[in-house]
Amino acid sequence: MIKINFLVDNKYFLVDNCFILVDNQVMHQSTLEIRKKIIDALRSDIVDLNNYIQRQFNISRQAVNKHLRALEEEGFLTSFGKTKNKNYQLGEIRQQSKIIKLDKKIDEFDVYSQDFEWVVENAPKNIQEIVDWGFTEILNNAIDHAQAKIVFIVLSIKEKELFLTICDDGEGIFNRIKRIKDFDSDQRVVLELSKGKLTTDDENHTGLDIFFSIEAFDFFAIYSNNHLYNFNNNTEINLEKYGFEKVFKMGDDLGFSTAVRMSIKLSSTTKLKDVFDKFAKAPEFEFDTTIVSLYLVNEKQNLVSRSQAKQATNRLEEFKFVTFDFKGIGSIGQGFADELFRVYPNKNPQISFDYVNADVEVEKMIKRVKK
């Protein structure tokens, strides 16, 4: 028998080393086992599904039909045919979740292809490529950098949107980067991560993973040290509605130090190739372009000092093209603007600077210091 551990107010279950998230209900152990087996059987193209489940659990045809109907009503299955000739296939709603013990033999590409790729097999090709990238790159971070023993992964599709969560029990992404790079705050780490080319292992990693994931997905957030950072500054995302807060709370309760959550609508037209072409231009295809999201400099969005501007411009000499994004910023101080648009550019004439999403007040200050 598969052992199930009830966790977090009976809302989360461990089934055969896989977490199953159940909202607003508590399922009996055998119910979870049966429904998981049904999904696995469909993935394996088992012939005569009903008889197979009957034999596996020694239950009646009527009992199996009850589970099949429930899964179909929830959108996990679709059916065609009637009564005894009814056949089932996987539905639009899909979910796979798994706990994986990490060691040097774990390969992120094998984990994705063997256990998770089926979730997106019917998604548009551009979505498949983005998920493949985000999944393998973030999992590789946990394997190579986090000093983690286990990871918890959930990949799901619901209401025409895909969600990917990867948690690990390692040192914690902010703690590790602060320790190695000598940064003074989590906020500083988030800012530097968002620029790209930040890595704690220069010999083996380029720092592309998080930056390109942020640009490819509709939503990208990291939860660690009791802080949730939304890298996309997407105010349209309702964290509670989309389950982000619940997932991150679960990570805390289960002892995970870092949780990365990504989402993208299946209707998205974003292509991974276009993201790479935008920031790594031909003919060199060097990662030489970045966007600095200035709201990440200060959570309170008060940008007034030269020291804040120096944080914004830190490491920008590694790039040739820099765009400052003022989305969410209502005003800036003269010292901040002068450092950002006069002092630093004069010291680094090899860099081409631009800015976007500046409102009227910000635009006035920029023009004033540029005179």
TrEMBL record:
<feature type="domain" description="DUF4325">
    <location>
        <begin position="315"/>
        <end position="362"/>
    </location>
</feature>
<dbReference type="InterPro" id="IPR036388">
    <property type="entry name" value="WH-like_DNA-bd_sf"/>
</dbReference>
<dbReference type="InterPro" id="IPR025474">
    <property type="entry name" value="DUF4325"/>
</dbReference>
<dbReference type="InterPro" id="IPR036890">
    <property type="entry name" value="HATPase_C_sf"/>
</dbReference>
<dbReference type="Pfam" id="PF14213">
    <property type="entry name" value="DUF4325"/>
</dbReference>
<dbReference type="InterPro" id="IPR011991">
    <property type="entry name" value="ArsR-like_HTH"/>
</dbReference>
<dbReference type="InterPro" id="IPR036390">
    <property type="entry name" value="WH_DNA-bd_sf"/>
</dbReference>
<dbReference type="GO" id="GO:0006355">
    <property type="term" value="P:regulation of DNA-templated transcription"/>
</dbReference>
<protein>
    <submittedName>
        <fullName>ATPase</fullName>
    </submittedName>
</protein>
